[in-house]
Inverse folding.
């Protein structure tokens, strides 16, 4: 997809996120909305995959460590044709494969990892990336992590190991919105200079505006080209991006809009006039 | 006849793993700075491209193993039992068990016989911790022969994750070289109609010795090797209880949550009989020489025989 087509696609995905969370009366819209731009760039311009063949051995893998933001992943998978779009509206309902946090047990095509417990995903992504080395395959592994993931020690165990083993087919993306459940992360548990931390752990760091398509596109390209070290894109995002009453408000980490707020969100995210 | 020779279970594991690795290029070995102690380093020397050390970071170790298992490899992960089934329990739950990732967690240094390192290293809760996880198989080899057979079985078991409990200390060899391991089956090693002794690991040989002591008093004890704790062999366990009417369980583990508890669960539902659980009774370990510790915590043939006599006397 061309760069100039991405904004419209991202708007559509944002509408899907609002719809899913509203209908489920449950879910985590803030992070999902904030991630929509870099996820669109990744999934529509960089990730090598085939919706008709979800288990294609050489596919690039996407690991959502911050599994609670799954509405954006589900919306993308449905849009790309991994499963019937109608399944999105069963999000979080008993018996639905569209579980509240992604589950490989649900057999939903396109789900690589059962995320939800922060801190665990980067290790899983590292193992996935190392497997390519042993099986002789040539795929890239992308792993999305949140501020909360970066507070978990295990994320840094994985970071240390990825650098030690020079796993350059691994690209992490931080949804760096500086928010978490109990408040701004600077108040709850400051991550300090996060890009510097990744750099200190031996990673190639790309620090970008998480809503600038050009910068994101270039970052994904540079990450894939980098040799000898894993790469991390620190994407500076705004939680709830695209919905005025959610933007920048940590309280929209989770929760669903009432009918009035739902209609307002959809209006704000409506297709831009041609 | 079993040799009763004192042999290392982890040596048997390391050797068998290397042989399996030669046959199957999908097998990889992972450790957290304990490659030599767990004997997976032998695999590493032969197959350096399939051997990964992650340093002292067990949470990451388990997550990596899961990623490998779900993407075409057969990972064997080894560290000490306390660092395998203790520290990264949540990672095992979320990333391995919940995802049904076929990871082979082969933990050494379980139980009191870790010895001088003391309580922080003497894992007495691992059977408990692992068997409660849905889909997690739990196997406790009784000696080096069984450790070898279990390793080879695990190499082709792809149904889900498995936890294998090994020791630091050498155990008496109680199984013949022609022994064949059957996953999910408890094995009656010695028959007898008066009382059933069910055990796992080192305690199987302790029970065989206890049976000899009891035989001198005219008491015929049945000895059962319950090497698969999960899925537990309900049929054999209930059948033994029906035969003798009295059961003693023996394990190098807390009596809460391990083999004894598993047997009680089965018998309460299938064949309620008096059961005495022998093991570590809600205590911590401590430093000492391995066999001195076993004696100190009273996990001896004499203790087992005394409990058997007491149970038979209606005590």
């Amino acid at each position: 997809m061309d760069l100039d087509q991405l904004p419209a696609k991202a708007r559509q995905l944002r509408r899907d996120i609002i719809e899913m969370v509203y209908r489920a009366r449950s879910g985590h819209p803030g992070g999902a909305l904030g991630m929509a731009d870099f996820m669109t760039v990744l999934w529509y311009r960089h990730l090598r995959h085939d919706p008709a063949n979800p288990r294609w051995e050489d596919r690039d893998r996407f690991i959502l460590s911050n599994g609670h933001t799954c509405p954006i992943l589900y919306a993308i998978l449905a849009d790309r044709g991994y499963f019937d779009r109608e399944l999105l509206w069963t999000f979080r309902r008993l018996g639905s494969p569209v579980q509240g946090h992604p589950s490989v047990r649900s057999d939903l095509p396109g789900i690589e990892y059962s995320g939800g417990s922060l801190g665990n995903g980067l290790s899983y992504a590292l193992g996935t990336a190392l497997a390519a080395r042993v099986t002789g395959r040539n795929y890239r592994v992308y792993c999305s992590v949140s501020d909360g993931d970066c507070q978990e020690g295990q994320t840094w165990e994985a970071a240390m190991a990825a650098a030690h083993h020079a796993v350059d087919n691994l690209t992490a993306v931080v949804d760096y919105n500086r928010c978490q459940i109990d408040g701004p992360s600077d108040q709850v548990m400051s991550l300090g200079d996060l890009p510097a931390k990744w750099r200190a752990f031996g990673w190639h760091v790309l620090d970008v505006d998480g809503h600038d398509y050009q910068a994101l596109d270039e970052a994904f390209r540079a990450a894939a080209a980098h040799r000898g070290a894993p790469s991390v894109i620190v994407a500076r995002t705004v939680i709830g991006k695209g919905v005025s009453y959610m933007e920048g408000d940590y309280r929209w980490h989770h929760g669903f809009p009432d009918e009035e707020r739902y209609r307002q969100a959809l209006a704000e995210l409506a297709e831009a006039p041609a | 006849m079993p040799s009763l020779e004192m042999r290392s279970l982890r040596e048997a594991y390391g050797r068998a793993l290397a042989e399996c690795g030669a046959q199957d290029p999908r097998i990889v070995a992972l450790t957290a700075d304990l490659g030599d102690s767990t004997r997976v380093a032998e695999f590493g020397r032969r197959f350096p491209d399939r051997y990964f050390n992650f340093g002292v970071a067990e949470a990451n170790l388990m997550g990596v193993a899961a990623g490998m298992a779900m993407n075409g490899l057969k990972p064997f992960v080894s560290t000490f039992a306390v660092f395998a089934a203790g520290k990264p329990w949540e990672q095992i739950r979320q990333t391995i068990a919940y995802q049904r990732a076929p990871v082979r967690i082969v933990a050494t240094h379980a139980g009191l016989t870790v010895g001088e390192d003391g309580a922080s290293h003497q894992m007495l809760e691992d059977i408990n911790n692992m068997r409660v996880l849905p889909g997690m198989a739990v196997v406790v080899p009784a000696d080096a022969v069984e450790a070898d057979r279990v390793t080879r079985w695990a190499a082709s078991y792809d149904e889900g994750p498995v936890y294998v409990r090994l020791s630091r200390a050498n155990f008496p060899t109680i199984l013949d070289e022609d022994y064949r391991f059957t996953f999910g089956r408890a094995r009656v090693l010695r028959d007898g109609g008066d009382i059933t002794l069910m055990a796992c690991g080192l305690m199987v040989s302790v029970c065989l010795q206890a049976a000899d002591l009891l035989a001198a008093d005219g008491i015929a004890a049945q000895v059962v090797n319950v090497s698969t704790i999960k899925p537990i062999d309900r049929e054999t366990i209930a059948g033994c209880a029906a035969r003798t009417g009295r059961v003693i369980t023996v394990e190098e583990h807390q009596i809460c949550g391990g083999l004894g508890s598993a047997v009680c669960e089965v018998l309460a539902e299938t064949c309620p009989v008096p059961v005495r659980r022998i093991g570590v009774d809600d205590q911590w370990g401590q430093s000492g020489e391995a066999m001195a510790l076993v004696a100190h915590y009273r996990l001896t043939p004499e203790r087992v025989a005394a409990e058997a006599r007491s149970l038979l006397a209606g005590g």
Observations:
- Chain B has two domains: 6-172, 187-312.
